[in-house]
């Protein structure tokens, strides 16, 4: 079965779940300039963070990465993550369950 959703049609901010109850968890993150998400983790998952528009300061543990529109980052969910928008920003985040093999 194929499901197609338009990111602009998703409800909820700053987080909108593209495919509720399905894996991998796929989230549209919308942040206004200066807005941030408190530090948190996603244990047992691998994360792909794709910035569609804007600019984000992505805090991962003690590292800070400036992510620009079109950039993609991949990291383990055990890391402490806290994104902060340097300008109005939209990202697509995929949280895939880590294989136990």
TrEMBL record:
It comes from the Archaea. It holds the Pfam family Cupin_2. Transmembrane segments: none annotated. Residues 29-88 form the Cupin type-2 domain. This is Cupin domain-containing protein.
């Amino acid at each position: 079965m194929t499901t197609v959703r338009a990111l602009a049609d998703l409800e909820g901010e700053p987080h909108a779940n593209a495919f509720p109850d399905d894996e991998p968890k796929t989230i549209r993150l919308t942040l206004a300039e200066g807005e941030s998400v408190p530090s948190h983790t996603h244990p047992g998952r691998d994360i792909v963070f794709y910035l569609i528009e804007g600019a984000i300061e992505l805090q991962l543990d003690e590292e800070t990465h400036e992510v620009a529109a079109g950039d993609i980052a991949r990291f383990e969910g055990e890391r402490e993550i806290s994104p902060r928008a340097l300008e109005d920003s939209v990202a697509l985040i995929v949280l895939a369950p880590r294989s136990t093999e």
